[in-house]
Design goal:
139 residues, mainly beta, Metal Binding Protein, Guanine Nucleotide Exchange Factor, Chain A, three-stranded antiparallel beta sheet, 2 helices, 33% strand, globular
């Protein structure tokens, strides 16, 4: 594993073989091939405990449990990332739609998408694949 320094976040770079050996097939498909789990099938949709949701690929903290809300979509949803440098946003024009893709800023793992229909205080809904996250309970 190599870390490539950028202006704000150290970059984690691994070969395709390294990612495949580290992740389950579902995790690999979602995070490295920009896949999506079926609504209601991924972990963390019903997770209610206090803690941190970290990137399944690199372990970086992404979303605090206090920002999680029930969006009714079948995917874990959050109104903001843990900090302004945790995630990166990219334009996504796949499936004949125009959306904003969310990736882990440290390792470029596909996480999901962000939409402007969330609750206050941000008005955003980070709709995230549960297989892209690991939950770390608060101690």
């Amino acid at each position: 594993m190599k870390k490539q320094e950028s202006a704000s976040t150290p970059r984690i770079i691994k070969s395709d073989a390294e990612w495949r050996s580290q992740l389950t097939p579902e995790q690999y498909h979602i995070t490295r091939e920009h896949g999506t789990e079926r609504a209601g099938t991924g972990p963390h949709v019903n997770q209610k405990g206090a803690g941190m949701y970290n990137c399944v690929c690199c372990g970086e903290p992404l979303f605090a449990s206090g920002t999680k809300f029930d969006s009714g979509t079948g995917w874990p949803s959050y109104y903001q990332p843990v900090n302004g440098e945790a995630v990166a946003e990219h334009e996504d024009r796949s499936w004949f739609m125009r959306r904003t893709e969310v990736r882990c800023a440290a390792c470029d793992a596909h996480l999901g998408h962000v939409f402007p229909d969330g609750p206050q205080p941000t008005g955003l809904r980070y709709c995230i694949n549960g297989h892209a996250l690991e939950f770390e309970p608060e101690k």
